Amino acid sequence: MKIRCRQCATGIMVAMLISCSRGTSEQPTSALPPASPASVTTSADAYDVTAVADGGSIAGTVTVSGSVQKLPPRKIAKDPQVCGTAERESQKLLVNKTGGLRNAVVIVEGVRRGKAMPAAAQNAQIDQNKCEYTPHVQVMAVNSEIALKNSDPVLHNIQFFQGDNSLFNIAQHVQGQVNKKKLEKAGTIYVECAVHGWMQGDVVVVDNPYYAVTDENGKFSITDLPPGKYRVRIWHEYVGETTSDVTVNAKTESAMDVDLKDLLARKTSAPAATASAAPGGPAADSNAKPSNEVIVQMLEVPGTAGAMFRYAPENLTIKAGTTVKWMNVSGEDGPRHTSTDDPEWESPQTPAIMPAGAQKWRTPFLRNGESATHAFTVPGKYQYFCETHCMYGMLGTITVTP
After folding, report:
1. Cα dist. 351→9, 390, 396 in Å?
2. What's the rounded Cα separation, in Å, for the pair 215 and 17?
3. Number of other CB atoms surrounding residue 90 within 10 Å
């Protein structure tokens, strides 16, 4: 069952406890016992832990050669008593002077037997401390739990995305609060705080223990790998991913140095993605042929209590047959946004409003630079919202005239 934006009992606590977009109000976990060794098995094929007497290893460096432009710093504009006010370096593209790429995840794919899963992968944790995720990138074992801890005396909303799907969104308003979530599918998870949009991170869920995260020099090492031929995947949150084939011999270190400069070049030259707004089925008003198009930006604006999330313009009047394009322009380190006019996701404070005969819509979670469109053919008033940031003021209206 999908969970809508929630409403708390009192007016002051509403602003603190509400969690939009599949929000939960779980009780904190007081203790963090170590995970069982059984967590190394996946829901599909079991991973067998066996002794690896003649194992080899893979070691190397992941680099981005040539000139690499630094990403813009992150602006800190909320809860200054805890978060401070100074700009922070972007964490998404950390390259040292020799081109070493930090936080690239190297994964040997398809290994079904070998050494045991490291304890760290079975006891993953994200600590929200001074309005930052620690660690920024980490690896955890599939079918194990990750602990989500709020070390700050302010509200954090921690939301997990896998692909275009939001897995959960938990409001943590108590300092020291810990919630735990089990992840049952291997893949990459994007993590974001709905309150502090600059708080972002990544969790890579793996089904075998043969992985590594590159250090500040781009170096990695994967040991005790049974001899054989393997496909190795290198994933990085900003640059993208690629694969490489490697042969591992018994008791021998196989070198694997990878330069991702071409991958980065393709990313920086690629056009922004565009999607069609859809209500969970066919695209809303998909047969309409718009006579024109109006752009609504999704962004952050300064306010007395810090930066707030907004649509610009918030209130729009258009003629029937017009297409509206929502564009996320919140910056490289900005949060994801949606445009949603669907009663299934509304809250008492942010109801979905549309005229009789009009189709509901719901866009994907749009990253910075991405956009989605919806054609309006039925006159009347529409009120829509961002699923993640609806309770932080991200609400818009569209009036369609004949």
Report:
1. 18, 10, 11
2. 37
3. 18
> What gap in Å lies between CA 37 and CA 117, rounded to an integer?
8
> Tell me, what's the pLDDT at 56?
98
- Reported as a pLDDT band with limits 50, 70 and 90, residue 164 is confident
E-assigned strands of 207-342? 211-213, 219-225, 228-236, 240-248, 253-255, 258-259, 274-276, 292-301, 308-312, 315-319, 322-328, 340-341
Give the Cα separation of 323 and 285 in Å (integer).
10
Query: Which CATH number among 1.10.3720.10, 3.30.420.40, 3.30.1370.100, 2.60.40.420 corresponds to the domain 22-269?
Result: 2.60.40.420
Rounded Cα–Cα distance for residues 363 and 337 (Å): 9
What fold is seen in the domain 274-401? Immunoglobulin-like (2.60.40)
**Rounded to whole angstroms, how far apart are CA atoms 10 and 357?**
36
pTM, to two decimals: 0.80
**147-161: b (≥16 Cβ within 10 Å) or e:** bbbbbbebbbbbbbb
Using pLDDT thresholds of 50, 70 and 90, give the confidence band for residue 275: confident
Per DSSP bridges, beta strands 165-172 and 156-162 are antiparallel
From the list 144, 159, 21, 152, the residue with the least C-alpha distance to 82 is: 152
Q: How many CB atoms lie within 10 A of CB 100?
A: 19
